[in-house]
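Posted in: Protein Modeling Q&A

I'm a second-year student putting together a small comparison for a lab meeting, and my supervisor asked me to include a predicted structure for RNA polymerase sigma factor (Sigma-70 family). I've never done this before, so apologies if this is the wrong subforum. The sequence is pasted below exactly as I got it from our records. If anyone can share the structure token output, I'd also love a short note on what stands out.
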Amino acid sequence: MVVDLTALSDRELVTLVQGDQSAYGELYLRHRQVALAHARNISRRHAEWEDLVEEAFVHVLARIQAGCHVNHFRAYLMTAIRNIAITESQAWDARWESYAVVDLPRVAHCPESIAMTALTVRAAFENLPERFRWALWLSAVEGWNPGHLSTLLGLSANTCAALMYRARTRFKAVYQLSFPD
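Accepted answer (user: helix_wrangler)
Welcome! Here is the predicted structure, written out as tokens:
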């Protein structure tokens, strides 16, 4: 007998998930758009929205298969999205706190020195290889993390983190060459 999954309630679909993965597919189709909207409200970075939603769906599926009783699927899913976003944000903050703060040379606060510093920064940035410029721009200005950069460049997140580190180090070295001791 073929069961029309669209006619079943969320609670009934959750009970069917143990033996029928298509039941979870129906839950996914029902709640994906609302989950994306919720992720948009939580995360500022649009590249994270899909990842948050997909990871939350995987998490909820694993919990259901482990025997967890999910009475209100949508509420459970939204809570999973929020918790994953918080965990990732805290991990991201901890990673960035480990980087040393760059001491910029002290310059007088006059328009000429500010303009000169801006020109020096621009020249240092333009002297970097294109790959380093992309890594610096996307991380510092756009707020991308190594995971997001990895999808753009087709590299692993670890490789992108190393690329970002090398780009910052090279930029610092080129910039400091402009200010002899």
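A couple of things worth pointing out for your meeting: Residues 111-177 form a domain with the Arc Repressor Mutant, subunit A fold (CATH 1.10.10.10). Helices lie at 10-16, 21-42, 46-65, 73-97, 111-126, 130-141, 146-153, 157-177.
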